[in-house]
Amino acid sequence: MLFGNLSDRLVDTFKNLRAKGKLSAADIDATLREIRRALLEADVALEVVKDFIAAVRERALGDEVSKALNPAQQVVKIVNDELVAILGGEQRKLNFAKKPPTVIMLAGLQGSGKTTLAGKLAKWLKDQNQTPILVAADLQRPNAVNQLQVVGERAGVEVFAPEPGNGVGNPVTVAKDAIKFANQKQYSVVIVDTAGRLGIDEELMTQARDIRSAVEPDEVLFVIDSMIGQDAVNVAKAFEDGVGITGVVLTKLDGDARGGAALSVSSVTGKPIIFASNGEALDAFEPFYPDRMASRILDMGDVLTLIEQTQKQFDEEEAKALADKLAKETFTLEDFLEQMQQLRKMGSLKNMLAMMPGAGQMRSQIENFDEKQIDRTEAIIRSMTPLERRQPKVLNGSRRARIARGSGTTVTEVNSLVTRFEQAAKMMKTMAKGAMPQMPGMPGMPGMGGGYLGGGKSKSKDKKKGSKSGNPAKRAAEEAARLAGRNPDQQSGGSSFGI
């Protein structure tokens, strides 16, 4: 999990502040030393760390901490604010041309995931009711043109590829011809995939500059691998100085590296991070929100992104029908299977769980989460008769043995699934009626051992206040936000360090 170690270190550091009342300058300096060490170990650029620590120290030693009712909480807020600042501050949206087509040029090193990213961006734009076209201007790397055509086919987007590549063709000519073609066919966005190299060289920069001059793009997006660490600084500076970029796209945010690139690149280049990619699937792509990323780093979760991803996959009419079933206690294993399949469409369940507030407290469970268990769950349910799916109470010993044989699993696994289903149905029924579910984790989630992620049940008796969403999955995320002690419409509040 990206930022996992950094998040753990920061959470532990703030826990030490929680027991203190009024904070002395020595307390703050000790905290800042730990934060500095944690950032450096996460491969954040030294110049970025220095500026960050200086900004936090200046504010932390001022009146906003000394006069605060909860000084420790105020320090956390300051750290959060400054993390947002080094990540770019306000979210920056894609700039579209006043007169189509909008031209987006992608640049970056070979291996950064640039070609796959082009397909993800095209699909995202298509989902925004744009009509994108991909341009195969990487004519150097072997099979780059073919790879882009495959990605384009998966995304359902046309690819302009007049040259075969593999060293054949002029990328500048291809890019210029693509703009003419897009104008003729009335495409609204042109995405130009350019050549990368294994390292920075003048030939790469010259070619990129020539393409930029030829097509005059509205955006030049620098695509960078989030896992390259300290090299991110040199690479980012080279592209900014050599080509001139307008924004950054982070790839491989689902990796387990230290994440220094993500925390350094915006400050170093002075350019905003516009998008982030966090998986292999074409849907594993999202706009970048500095405040939400800071919230993840501080283990406060990212409920807003979780809700947005849920809304993309769950149809409102289906959600209402499901809510009715839950309220009437007619929720079946068929419905359970359908919900599991819709969750899978959202991408990696590990990534989803990592967005929950307090995910750092259950990192070992998340990292050990077995996504293949969902396949086994599906096999078990599909091995049942329609009657058994609708009425699990008829599942006696012989029926369970038959289902285990048919699904290639064990009776124990069948029993575990039935138990998880009953837990999930009970929790969702409670939520459908508007009560606060006792949900320290996510009961019933396959691969988690069939229990609660957080151990025992919450003893909280507080009733949920305010309006409820008609979307059960969205409501689950909202409930998680409330359990974390904050309004789900906001990104500030409780975290795993309890302040």
UniProtKB/TrEMBL annotation:
Residue ranges, compositional bias (Gly residues): 444-457
Keyword field: Cytoplasm, GTP-binding, Hydrolase, Nucleotide-binding, Ribonucleoprotein, RNA-binding, Signal recognition particle
Localization of this protein: Cytoplasm
Start and end residues of each stretch annotated as Disordered: 441-499
Domain of life of the native organism: Bacteria
Domain notes: Composed of three domains: the N-terminal N domain, which is responsible for interactions with the ribosome, the central G domain, which binds GTP, and the C-terminal M domain, which binds the RNA and the signal sequence of the RNC.
Subunit: Part of the signal recognition particle protein translocation system, which is composed of SRP and FtsY.
Name the record gives this protein: Signal recognition particle protein
Organism: Candidatus Rhodoluna planktonica
Name of the coding gene: ffh
